[in-house]
Each structure stands twice: as structure tokens, then as C-alpha cells.
Amino acid sequence: MLTMIAEHFNYGVVIILMMTGLYVVFASDNMVKKLVGLSVFQTSVFLLYITMGKVRGGVPPIIEPTGDGGHEPVASAGHGEAAISHASEQASHGAEHAAQAGDHAVQAAEILYSNPLPHVLILTAIVVGVATLAVGLALVVRVREVYGTIEEAEIDAINYAFDLEGYNPEGEIR
Amino acid sequence: MLSAILSPEWIVREAPVALIVLPLMMAVITAILPRERLAWLVVMGTTIACSVLSFIVLREVLANGVVDYALGGWEPPLGIALHVDGLNAPILFLISVIGALCTLYAMRSVTAEVEPKKRPPFYAAFLVSFAGLLGMVITGDAFNVFVFLEVSSISTYVLVAMGSSRDRRALNSAYNYLILGSIGATFFVIGLGFLFMETGTLNMIDIAATLKAAGGGSRVVQVAFAFIVVGLGLKLAMFPLHLWLPGAYAYSPSYVTAFLAATATKAALYLLLRFVFTIFDPSADFIISSLTWLLAVLGVVGMFAASLQAIFQNDARRLLAFSSVAQIGYMLLGIGMGTALGLTAGYTHLLGHAMTKGALFLCLGAVWYRYGITRVSELNGLMKTMPLTATAMIIAGLSLIGVPGTIGFISKWALLTAAADNGWWWAVGAIVATSILALIYIGRMLEAILLQEPPKIDGETVARNEAPLTMLIPMWTLALACIYFGINSAWPIELAGRAAAVLGGGL
């Protein structure tokens, strides 16, 4: 049981964040706090996606350059962290390039990669979340200007009072 | 003759992608245009071009069955694919034609409802929303659906909020819509995550194939299904998740209300159909039981609850908004049956209701434009003060009730037949009973329009003041479509039949 919880620790974090966010959205009366809750809720989903794409022991998914190693150090230098360990490994093997070429192909097939796709997807979702938050905050600013409050209960009361007073054909109340 | 004009091969080939790219690019241009009239012209041109393009796509689909487009030449499942078949081609056509009609209407209505300096960005936001709706319907990639869903939703929040110069409650409604819409979209994306965990792909056809090969998949798939249905349920205003809808419809500018009422919930409903029937395996137990006990039951409860609420509304636009929730209940009932007949009926109702509700909201917008009124009690004597608008409103109202000779009757009759065929006599009773409720709330409007005398101001009867031509054309086009398809129903039934065939002919 404990090991199961430990192994699924990341999902636990996601669930706790998700529920916290949703609870804040539902329970809070303040419009800004609601948006904060919404952001926490959305962030939990980002974590869900990120944790989904991570493979234990996996490296960033950058394909190792294979083939003859003459220009190898230059080529791998441009390939980021994952390649570095291999580049140094190659350098240590120095003169044995020709013999190593075949080995590299095998090695490349055996390397464990993380799945990059969910990470890329979540970049899009982060942008969406930022846009939603921006529009939401802009709306709250306008609400504050018009109603003079950002507490939903007070706004509902104002609207309700307006409904009771009846419709005023002149006053497109501002 | 038509084919000679419309058939240069490259147009046919690129039409699907142009449907997304054209409005998105034009939105950028519209946003920086200095003059409102110019912005309107660009939007008008874009929506008309999209109508033509979607007609070309529809014609291709009717001829060949399926149109596929691999974006950037990357073949699916690696690349993002656009996939049009009998299920989404009619909805594409519907969205773009309604968009064009509403834009024609907007020329006058926006001048009364939106502040001058905000008009070009307002039109730009409309185009973004339009592009988002087309995108989420046309795409064949599940994550792409989420992106376009949010593109259209975020711009819709802005559009709704623009009603604030007319009624400040628009701001409050837009905020509620934003909160609930974002929760819905997030639920949807959680569901997609689980689906991706199970299948490792995002292409719709590929997901379906992988799930089939895995024999329906594990419990992860059921979790994904639950999240996706709840997420889409929020977006399409399924009964207990509809709380954002009345406010958003009642206080946004009439241009936006008519467009949203006719298209936004319909696009989300299409997604529900697409996911439930073609991506998941509809013969799985958990799907059959949730169709029957979730969609159909909530549909029927929604039909009653929302119709009853509609009866007690004072504001005509809120009345129609609650009626929309009830009509979505009919569509969900048809989908919930899961049979070919039920799906055909639900789909026909979707098409018919888009025309009907679009026409009604356009009429109410015109009444507000001329007299500044929205209350049911203030519609008194409209037949004498705005005869053409009132007539269009009556036709659409009758179609909403389901009077023979209108599209509303065709779809309700199809629903009744499907329910009877399925042995669901309680559903038959529910449809008849809620049609009577519809008769009551539409009857309240009709009574005021037809039987009451126009109000008097300072002892003078209010003068006749008909809506301008650019407003009459869209509303009458939709009202006449209600009658035309009500008498000559072959076309909508044929389209709905093809859609049901794509869905595997039901269970």
C-alpha cells in the first residue's frame, strides 16, 4: 500500500492541487480569488501532462548523431545536455571511431527517452491558461469600475435590486 | 454551372484549411483597421468566403464521403489532420452561413450596442470566435479540438462582455461564463490526457483504432470518457451545467447572442457526438448505460426544468435562453437513444433549432434596436409597430413549438418516432408535455405581439417603425428556411441520415 502511494506520489500531488483549485473556485466569493483557484486547477492539469510524459530514467528525446565520428564532437555540441555525456564518452574512445560506429547505432536504439509530446501540448495549454486569466482579470477590473465591488454576493444583490425596481426604459444603467 | 465556377482543383483541395486560416488572418487585419465600416466589410467578406468554402467542402463530402487534409504535408497520425465527413460538413456550413447572416445584421445592430472605438476590435474578436468554432468542428486531432475550443471560448467571453454598454450585467455574465467555460475546457483536457495515456496518440481515427485493437481499453478509458462528457457538457449547456447560458445570451449584443445561440452549443454538441460514437466504442457497457441514464435522463429533466423556468421569465431574451437549454435537452434525448433513428432525429433538431433560435434572437435584437425593449410585456402590439419583424418572430416561434409546416415539427416528429421505435414511451410523453410548455412560453410572446394594442406615450400610439433592411434580410432568410425545410424536409433529413451513418448507425 505504502509503496503504491509512493510510486503514485506525482498523481497525489496533481489530485490535491486539482481539488484545492476547484474548491477555491466554488467556495470563494471574491472574483479575483476565484481566478486564482481556476489557475491552480489548470496548473494541476499541466502537472498531470508533464508527469505523464516523464519516463523513469529517460533522457530528453534528442537523437544521437551516429555514423563516422570524425566530426562528432562538433555535431553533438549543438545537441544539448543529453548528448554531452555521450560526446565525452566518444572523446575518451578517441581513435576507435570506426569500430564504434556500429555500436552507436545499437546504443541509440537502447536509450530510454522521455515522451516529449505531452510537454509540447502543455506549452499550448499554458498559453491558453494565461489568456483566460488575462481576460478574466480584465473583466474583474471592468466589474469593479461598474459595480464598485468584486464580491459576487454584493453584485447579485445589486442586480436583484435592479430587477425588483423594474425596467427603466431610459436608463441603460451604467 | 455551379461546378464550373467552384471547381478549380486547388480551391477544392485547400478549402478545409482555408476555413481556419482565412478568418484567423483576417481577424488580425480587422483588429488594426481604423474605420468601423472597413472592419465590417472585411468580416462580411470573410464570412461570405467561408460560406462558399464550406459549401465546396460539403459538396465534396456529399460526393466522396470524406475529405482529409494533412496540415503542412505531415501525414497523420504524426501530423495534425483536418477530417471532414458527413457528420461535421453540415455543421461547418451552418456555422459559416449563420456567421455571414449575423454579420449582415451586425452592420446596424453594432452601431447601437457597442462603443465606436471598440468596434473594429469587436469585429476582430468575432472573427476569432468564428475561426475557433470552425476549427474545433473541422479538426481531426483531439488536442487541436481543445485549442480551438479555447480560441473560440476566450473570444466569446470578450464578445459577451461587450454587451456592457447596453446592460452592465453583461460583465457579470461574461465572468461566470469564463469561470464555468474554463472549468469545462480543463475537464475536457484532463479527459484527453487519460485518453493519451491509454492510446499514445491524439489523432481521432488513430485513437479509435487503438482502442478497438485493445478491446475497449482499461478503466483509464472510462475515466477519460467521464471527464470528456462533463467537460463538453459544460460547453454545450447540458441541463445541470447550463448556468452560464441564460446570462451570456441575455446580456450580450444581439449580434453575438444570435450567432452563439445558433452555433456555439451546436459545435460542442457535435464534439460530444464525435467523441462518444466515433472515438470511444459506443457498444461498450459503460457508454450504453451513460447514454441512457445520463444523457437521455438529463436531457428530459432539462426539457422540463428549463421550459418551466422559461415560462416565468420577464425578459424575452432570458426566456429564449432557457428555451435553448430545453432544446438542447431534446438533442441529448435523441443522442441518448443511441439508435440510428434517434441520432438522425437529434441531428435534425440541431440543424433546425439553429435556424429557429437564430431567427428569434435576430428579431428580438431588431426590436431592441428600434424601441429599446426586451421585456415580454413590452412586446405589446408589435404586429402593428413592426409587422415584418413580428411575422418572422411568429414563424420562428411556431417552429420552436413544433407546429406542422416548420422544421421544428419535422425534428420533433422524428424524435417522437425514434422514441416510440425504441419503446421509450415516457420519452414520447415528455416530448409532448414539454411542447405544451413551449406553447405556453411562446404563447405569452405571441399573445402580446398579436392581441395587445401598441402602447401609448402621451396619448399617442407608438408610431410604426420597421427594422432596417439589413436586419430584415437575415431574420427572414432564417424564418423562411424554417418553413422551407419544414415543407421540403428531404435535405435536412438526408444530411442527418448521413451524419448518423458516420456515427456507425448507432449501436
| Sheet/helix structural class of chain A | mainly alpha
Distance between the termini of chain A: 60 Å
Order the strands across the largest sheet of chain B as they lie in space.
1-2
Mean pLDDT of chain A: 75
- Given the structure, what is the number of helices of chain A? 8
Shape of chain B: globular
Q: Nearest-angstrom radius of gyration of chain B?
A: 22 Å
Based on the structure, what is the oligomeric state of the protein chains?
heterodimer
The number of E-state strands of chain A comes to 0
Instruction: Determine the most extensive contact between two protein chains.
Output: A-B, 35 and 34 residues
Topology overview:
The complex is a heterodimer of chains A (about 170) and B (about 500).
Chain A lengths: L1 H6 L1 H19 L3 H23 L18 H6 L3 H13 L3 H14 L5 H32 L4 H14 L9
Helix pairs in contact in A: 2-3, 3-7
Chain B lengths: L1 H5 L2 H24 L3 H29 L2 E4 L10 E4 L4 H25 L5 H20 L3 H20 L7 H31 L4 H10 L5 H17 L8 H8 L2 H26 L5 H27 L4 H22 L2 H32 L10 H4 L1 H15 L5 H16 L2 H27 L4 E2 L2 E2 L7 H19 L2 H13 L5
Antiparallel strand pairs in B: 1-2, 3-4
Helix pairs in contact in B: 2-3, 2-5, 3-4, 3-5, 4-5, 4-11, 4-14, 4-19, 5-6, 5-11, 6-7, 6-11, 7-9, 7-10, 9-11, 10-11, 10-13, 11-13, 11-14, 12-13, 12-18, 13-14, 13-17, 13-18, 14-16, 14-17, 14-19, 14-20, 16-18, 16-19, 17-18, 17-19
Give your account of this protein's structure.
The complex is a heterodimer of chains A (174) and B (507). Chain A is mainly alpha-helical and 174 residues long. Chain A has 8 helices and no strands. Chain A has helices at 2-7, 9-27, 31-53, 72-77, 81-93, 97-110, 116-147, 152-165. The termini of chain A are far apart. With 507 residues, chain B is mostly helical. Helix content of chain B is 77%, strand content 2%. Chain B has helices spanning 2-6, 9-32, 36-64, 89-113, 119-138, 142-161, 169-199, 204-213, 219-235, 244-251, 254-279, 285-311, 316-337, 340-371, 382-385, 387-401, 407-422, 425-451, 469-487, 490-502; strands at 67-70, 81-84, 456-457, 460-461. A two-stranded antiparallel sheet of chain B has the order 1-2. A two-stranded antiparallel sheet of chain B has the order 3-4. In chain B, helix 3 packs parallel to helix 5, helix 4 (89-113) runs antiparallel to helix 5 and helix 17 packs antiparallel against helix 18. The model of chain B has no long low-confidence stretch (mean pLDDT 90). The A-B interface holds A 22, 25, 31, 34-35, 38, 41-42, 45, 48-49, 52, 117-118, 121, 124-125, 128, 131-132, 135-136, 139-140, 142-143, 146-147, 155, 159, 167, 169, 172-174 and B 143, 146-147, 150, 154, 157-158, 161, 164-169, 171-172, 174-175, 178-179, 182-183, 185-186, 189-190, 193, 196-197, 202, 372-373, 375, 378.
